[in-house]
Amino acid sequence: MMRLKIIFLLSLYCLCAKGQIQYEYFNSEYFWGKLVMETSSSPLPHFTADDSVIVVISTRILQPDSFRFVGEIKDAYASHNYLVFSKDGKWHIHPFPSLVDAIHAMPNINQDWVIYTEGMGKIFTTDLDRGMQLSQQYNVNTIVFDYPSIRTGLKPLGNYKFAYRNARSAYKEYVPLLDTVMMLRTKAKMGNGKLSLFFHSTGNNVIRAIARKGIINHYNTTAWIDNIILNAPCVPRKKNAVWLNNIHCSKHIYVHYSPIDATLRWARIAGFRQIMGEHIKKPIAAQAIYINFAALCGTEHSNFLHLYQREGPPQEAFNHYKVLLHGEKAKTMDSTLYRASHYRHIGWELLRKE
Length: 354
Known about the structure:
The chain is α/β, with parallel strands linked by helices. The protein is 33% helix and 21% strand. Strand 3 (60-62) and strand 4 (70-74) form a beta hairpin. Helix 1 (2-17) packs antiparallel against helix 10 and helix 6 crosses helix 8. 42% of the residues are buried.
């Protein structure tokens, strides 16, 4: 028992320590000093093609009297809608009374849209940065769903429990977001671009809860979403095909996995459970397309962004994500890009060009 406890605590330490450099940078006075909180009555600037603009739905509590003015715990009363834009070296956070207003304030409503949900270890500034990066690197309109997934001062075990618990309950705030987007898409009031839902790591608990609880049935009337992307899903593997097969509101569903993902390995040890994004096994969902990243990306976990003090993703991975985030279908039958996966013969694996 003592040996298992030591392994458990060491695995949690490794899982949390890996992101410590990023956490310290994004929680620094330097980075928070880049942010300016506007008022809802502040005039918006005239946006140009060079401006970075995203929508953020945050469930975090506001701390107006603090230098770090968006907190690390959930607001028990409301979610907050922001338009975040870069101007003159600062990131301006403009509150909106409704998500509809924030979406309609985007400068190019006809671009393709991505609703982006991150995983463990993100504070408000980290999610802003990743949303900006996704928007810039892939040239998409980005809606970031931001929920608390780390607490300053908590030890690894406490942070693991905190992040996982919040991810599993975040569907309650995600559902109104999905309702609004479905309404706008149905009424043709969200431009003519394509729409993808992108869940990374622990963030996949959001769509899992929506599917398992039957909430997904409300959205299954038509395939109004182009792609649902489950990226390195840090969720229990057990009966994953059952809830995946409940999803019919998307034209395509992608499951990105890697049997040698180092982050998911620690999550498996820490949680004493098999992880869907690591050791996937049959039966698999009939309508999902499975992509194995092991051969191309090795033990890496976040293979879609150029992140602070980390090596960027391989070009082949970037190209794959670019297709999916623009609502298109991966060309898995192109033998220069993909081959049948050797891992349990599940799906396809990305190829590295010579």
